[in-house]
UniProtKB/TrEMBL annotation:
GO terms (BP aspect): 'de novo' UMP biosynthetic process; amino acid metabolic process
Keyword Transferase set for record: yes
Organism: Photorhabdus khanii NC19
Keywords: Transferase
Domain Aspartate/ornithine carbamoyltransferase carbamoyl-P binding: 1-56
Lineage: Bacteria, Pseudomonadati, Pseudomonadota, Gammaproteobacteria, Enterobacterales
Secretion signal, residue range per the UniProt entry: none
This protein's name: Aspartate carbamoyltransferase, catalytic chain
Entry keyword annotation includes Lipid metabolism: no
Family under the similarity heading: Belongs to the aspartate/ornithine carbamoyltransferase superfamily.
């Protein structure tokens, strides 16, 4: 029925499979607005606006060190890794809990594309060299709180080099203290604004194709 009413479908779902299943059956172009987590979970438009935001501060034809502070199988993290791996001279620092690793399929992809990566258990170890600190949070339950060594707090800002930027896909949680908002390193507000423009461009591209049929 949606095929009869719309030109484009934008779909977001808490699970991975429904978006893929809908794409197979739909006659409309489908934009994945985020689906699930883990294997095959993606958030493509988030990755595009993230790349755009990074490129504003660090031209991606040069070397870049990305400090990723989150569960590496989250959809935002996975999609960003897929995109960032298309560029050369990328070093990835993964600040995660001990039992949180990249999926084997993602590790294979990074090795294939030449991205070097290492795991950290303390965020301070990566702040000295990071160009981009990308925070997306960790899993929190009633019986488990993430280690404080994984968190970026205001007292650690002095470890960042002057041009480093802090990013977050939002909405924010405990992992992004409000005290960071006035820092010169804060880029997540402009990142969110870029999301409007990037998604406008995506929609315009689709409408141009549809209009030219």
């Amino acid at each position: 029925m949606i095929n009869a009413y719309a030109d484009i479908a934008v779909m977001r779902h808490a699970k991975v499979e429904p978006v893929h299943n809908y794409c197979i059956k739909s006659r409309l172009p489908v934009i994945n607005a985020g689906n699930g987590e883990g294997l095959n979970a993606e958030h493509p438009t988030q990755a595009l606006l993230d790349i755009f935001t990074i490129h504003q501060s660090f031209p991606l034809h040069k070397s870049l060190t990305l400090l990723l502070c989150c569960h590496p199988s989250s959809r935002s993290a996975r999609s960003l890794l897929f995109c960032i791996a298309l560029f050369h001279n990328i070093k990835l620092l993964l600040c995660t809990e001990e039992n949180c690793k990249l999926l084997p399929e993602d590790e294979a992809y990074l090795r294939q594309t030449g991205v070097t990566y290492e795991y950290l258990r303390n965020i301070k170890e990566g702040l000295y060299s990071a160009d981009v600190i990308y925070i997306a949070g960790y899993k929190e339950t009633a019986n488990h709180l993430p280690d404080s060594n994984l968190m970026l707090t205001p007292d650690l800002l002095s470890y960042l080099h002057p041009r480093a930027i802090i990013m977050h896909p939002l909405p924010r949680g405990y992992e992004l203290p409000y005290e960071l908002d006035n820092s010169v390193h804060c880029a997540y507000f402009s990142q969110a604004e870029n999301g409007v423009f990037v998604r406008m461009a995506i929609l315009q591209g689709y409408f141009n194709v549809i209009g030219g049929r």
